[in-house]
Structures are given as structure tokens and as C-alpha cells.
Design brief:
Helix content: 25-40%
Shape: globular
Distance between the termini: 49 Å
CATH topology of the largest domain: Hsp33 domain
Number of helices: 11
Length: 313
């Protein structure tokens, strides 16, 4: 279900922001047909805290994971395949962060980080992306449930933020001019609030031409990107500002903006006891006995939700 916001003199029929209006853990997609552009805005709160609180990471690692989860929600919620999954994974051989994994499926988010505590102690209090990863790489993978197909792109972790690395992925791997903005903060009670904006110039399908040419051929992308750059971190992370109102602030002069049905976001992990038992059932009785501790239990530790599941061998 879509609805339209008309530009110029007509104000869209959206809820005025008030102290009682709270919009969080939501993704909202939109399109600007006359500019050949599409976009998405995400805002996270309790769902983000639910993932982070399970790990009790140091501030620098927690901030990194918060940004990565927000990006996963931003990019993953563009999937039209309801059962599809987006996975973002980093790798480095000599950085503070050895592995970061986040994924999105059906509105559910999860993630974790493996890091070297000794190297982190030697790093600055507010480390750069290079200080955390060194010569690292970001892999973004789309798994489509309906067709079983998998698409993956890998780009260097260049830039100052994960958002810049994700933006490079779209430009380099998919050749789609893209703008990505992410903001993460904590409120007075220590709760995390994150927001993000994704803008993309849609290819027009010129036969035999790379899609990146659309950026060179159409000035409307420069117009859309310029407006996207004006978004303020405070707007992205203000739960009292409805996402539709933020779209209006950015693009109220456009002839037409099509806003899609919002998507609810939540923390989710697939490590149910039944799932774990089904995985262990694939091992022979002898293998299960070797995995067991002195009490005859196999301790399965889920890295995503930091929960241990004891299973009888």
C-alpha cells in the first residue's frame, strides 16, 4: 500500500510531531518518480538496545555495532523478497576488530563483534574506522529466498565511517549513485537512538551502458543528493519527528513523492532450542558425546544473542 505526498502548496496529511508522537523501530521507503530516485529512512531505538545490551561491549565497539545494525536495517528493508536476508560482514587480519557480522531478515536484526581487547586498550578513546580495522573489507550479501540466488559485493573499508563504506559498495559493486547518512546517539537515560537515510538514483535501463552513467546524464540526481545532504543528525534521531514529516522537509518542493507502507523493525535471533536441537541431530551419537561436558550437556553458545543453550547429549 502506497500513498502520495504532493509538493508545493499542498501539505501532506501526516501527523504533526508532538511530544506524544513517537516513531521508532521503523523503516519507511519512498520514491521520487520525476527525479528517477528512491529513498529510505530508518529509525531505531529499543530494537537496537535489545541487541547491544546482550553483549556489554566497550563504548567504541558498541558504537560500531550500532552503526552497522542501522545500516543493515536501512539496506535490508529494501528487499522485496519477504524471506530474503541481508548480511554485512567485515574481515581484517591485523585490526582491533577481527570480525563484525550483522544481518536483517523480515524486519529482524541481529549482530555481534569479535575484537582484540589488548589492541583496543592501545587505541584512541574515539578510534577511527582505520584504527579499528586497518586494511579491512566489507562484504554485503543478499540471499533471496524465492529463487535461492545469492549476490555479494566486497569493498575496502575506506572512509571515516561504516556508512561511507556502504555508500562505496553501491557505487562500486552495483554502480548505483547513492547517498547514505547514519546518526547514532544516546539519550539522557543512556538509551540508544539511531537514524539513517538512503537515497539512490534509479537506472533507466539504457541498453549496453553501465548504470553509473545515469549520474552523468541526469542532473536530477545532483538535485536529490544535494537535498539529502541537508538532513541533520538530530532529525534522523528525533523519535518525535514522524518519518513522513522528515520526507516532507527534504522534498516538499517535488511534484510527487510516493511513500510506501512502513516496516516494523525488531531484534531477532534464530537460535531457538528447537533449531539448535535440529542442528545437533545431524551429528552421530558418538560425536555428540564428545561435545558434551562432564554433566552430559552440550553447551551451545549463540554469538548473536550471547545466550548459552544446554542440550542433552
Amino acid at each position: 500500500m502506497d500513498f502520495r505526498l504532493r509538493g508545493h502548496d499542498e501539505r501532506p496529511s501526516v501527523t504533526e510531531p508532538t511530544s506524544q508522537t513517537i516513531e521508532i523501530d521503523t523503516a519507511l521507503g519512498f520514491a521520487i518518480p520525476t527525479r528517477s530516485a528512491r529513498g529510505r529512512i530508518v529509525r531505531l531505538g529499543p530494537a537496537l538496545d535489545a541487541v547491544l545490551s546482550a553483549h556489554a561491549y566497550p563504548p567504541a565497539i558498541e558504537s560500531l555495532l550500532a552503526e552497522a545494525l542501522t545500516l543493515a536495517a536501512l539496506i535490508g528493508s529494501t528487499l522485496k523478497d519477504v524471506g530474503g536476508q541481508l548480511t554485512m560482514q567485515t574481515r581484517t587480519d591485523n585490526g582491533v576488530v577481527q570480525l563484525l557480522v550483522v544481518d536483517y531478515r523480515g524486519g529482524e536484526l541481529r549482530g555481534y563483534v569479535q575484537y582484540d581487547a589488548d589492541k583496543l586498550a592501545e587505541a584512541p578513546a574515539d578510534p577511527t574506522l582505520f584504527a579499528l580495522f586497518g586494511a579491512g573489507y566489507l562484504a554485503i550479501t543478499f540471499d533471496l529466498a524465492t529463487t535461492g540466488e545469492r549476490y555479494q559485493g566486497i569493498v575496502p573499508l575506506d572512509g571515516a565511517t561504516m556508512a561511507e563504506a556502504a555508500q562505496s559498495y553501491f557505487v562500486q559493486s552495483e554502480q548505483i549513485p547513492t547517498l547514505v547518512r547514519v546518526a547514532v546517539r544516546q539519550d539522557a537515560a543512556g538509551r540508544h537512538i539511531a537514524g539513517a537515510l538512503l537515497l539512490q538514483h534509479l537506472p533507466e535501463g539504457e541498453e549496453g551502458r553501465e548504470r553509473l552513467h545515469t549520474k552523468l546524464d541526469h542532473r536530477e540526481w545532483e538535485h536529490v543528493a544535494t537535498l539529502g545532504h541537508t538532513v541533520d543528525p538530530g532529525e534522523l534521531t528525533d523519535p518525535a519527528l514522524p518519518l513522513r514529516d522528515l520526507v516532507w522537509r527534504l522534498f516538499n518542493e517535488e511534484d510527487e513523492v510516493r511513500v510506501h507502507t512502513p516496516i516494523a523493525l525488531s531484534r531477532g535471533c534464530r537460535c531457538t532450542p528447537d533449531h539448535i536441537e535440529s542442528v545437533l541431530a545431524k551429528f552421530s551419537p558418538e560425536d555428540r558425546r564428545e561435545m558434551a561436558d562432564d554433566d552430559g550437556l552440550i553447551q551451545v553458545d549463540c554469538a548473536f544473542c550471547a545466550t548459552k543453550f544446554p542440550v542433552v547429549a
